[in-house]
Amino acid sequence: MVIDERLREREFGILDRHTRVGIRERFPDQAEARARIGKFYHRPPGGESWCDVILRLRSVLDTISLHYSQPGSRMLIVTHQVVVLCFRYLIEEMTEEQVLAIDRDADVVNCGVTE
Length: 115
Hints:
Blueprint: H1 20-26, H2 28-37, H3 50-68, H4 81-91, H5 96-105
Helix pairs in contact: 1-2, 3-4, 4-5
């Protein structure tokens, strides 16, 4: 088993532990910025955008390829919702629109398995 800090959930910064309603009430400037920039690119203060997560996952995939990949081998990665979706974005070569549609239609559920 290997624990890798790059597989942590997206950092939400000042928006951590707030609902959409709470964000609109407490941080209206951030709600407006997210609406203007879009979910994929918005980076809250002290947090990460989906693009930031994708950047660190590219590094994870390089590490896996260099150090852990062997013909016929399998790997189980345990992580969180946005990270799972960003992995799919990279591995399945999705567009921004495709991965956000999956996020809208079928959230990654707690203790779910994505194959």
